[in-house]
């Protein structure tokens, strides 16, 4: 069994369809053949200011949603990043082998810091991809299931692993991104050339897993399309309709082109109405289950504690190798 590793930030009350179709759905399917480590990355969340009470609540909400969608704590270690100190410890070592200019090239930092002005951004936001590299490399995973927007960070992770391996001794495995083409990037319903994003999209542009299903149905019916009124899968020419077809295809397991064929001679209203029904049918049980799991915090604490124990057993071993190789004296 090969290992897989991925993380998600507890920075919203709910995950959205971009997170789910881009990454989290693969977290569930990869459990069958692999040994997964999945974490809620609270240390990444504080790279921008968070209200402590809200952060704690969202960490629990994240864990509940992962369980509700089918991440199974028997097969997967589900844990909170700050429960495994080796992440921050390895990040320091990797900071020291990362060139400043290399970190500066990360487009996500450029995008996120552009909003408040670079001067207002934390050093943590700047070095976040290096902490992410540490998150991954500690577990020596074969694959990292993520959305397309994480590809550049994965490249940095591989570069740092290779650099450490050549400068010291082979220690890290070079992980491959696991990105499914069909759902690599889900777009904003109101602005279908931009990615669906919790920080950049308007509420009408995002479908949240924990939204009232009636609200999600309404958002789909109000999605921006085009003035042609021909249902066809053409992401370049018809981004709005194609995004709806991609979501439809992912939830039903049918190819987007084939679904488009069902609507020959019919309008966008029919497509939107049917997709709204599919989405409501999908989110309703997931949401009910997540809200039920949130009622029992001590059960969630236990899942997270056992996940963290499994994670620490692997991460501490890798960190000990790293400390040894860089020349730190072993404590008695
Ligand atoms: N629109 C998307 N399409 C496909 N995949 C996506 N992901 C995010 N948006 C899309 C993937 O979701 C995973 C979790 O990401 P995260 O916790 O790092 O959140 P994020 O990337 O910060 O999510 P957002 O909504 O895009 O937040 P902001 O707006 O803050 O940047 C990752 O695997 C990501 O690729």
Automatic annotation (TrEMBL):
Keyword Nucleotide-binding: yes
Coiled coil: none
Subcellular location: Cytoplasm
Catalytic reaction list: tRNA(Trp) + L-tryptophan + ATP = L-tryptophyl-tRNA(Trp) + AMP + diphosphate + H(+)
Enzyme nomenclature, EC number: 6.1.1.2
Annotated binding of ATP, by residue: 9-11, 18-19, 147-149, 186, 195-199
Protein origin, superkingdom: Bacteria
InterPro entries: aa-tRNA-synth_Ic, Rossmann-like_a/b/a_fold, Trp-tRNA-ligase, Trp-tRNA-ligase_bac-type, Trp-tRNA_synthetase
Keywords: Aminoacyl-tRNA synthetase, ATP-binding, Cytoplasm, Ligase, Nucleotide-binding, Protein biosynthesis
Annotated L-tryptophan binding sites: 135
GO biological process: tryptophanyl-tRNA aminoacylation
GO MF term set: ATP binding; tryptophan-tRNA ligase activity
KW Calcium (keyword) present: no
First-tier enzyme category under EC: ligase
One cellular-component annotation, GO: cytosol
Primary location recorded for the protein, binned into one broad class: cytoplasm
Placement of sequence motif 'KMSKS' region: 195-199
PANTHER family: TRYPTOPHAN--TRNA LIGASE, MITOCHONDRIAL
Function: Catalyzes the attachment of tryptophan to tRNA(Trp).
Subunit note: Homodimer.
NCBIfam families: trpS (TIGR00233)
Family in the record: Belongs to the class-I aminoacyl-tRNA synthetase family.
Protein name: Tryptophan--tRNA ligase
Organism: Nocardioides zeae
Lineage per the UniProt record: Bacteria, Bacillati, Actinomycetota, Actinomycetes, Propionibacteriales
Underlying gene: trpS
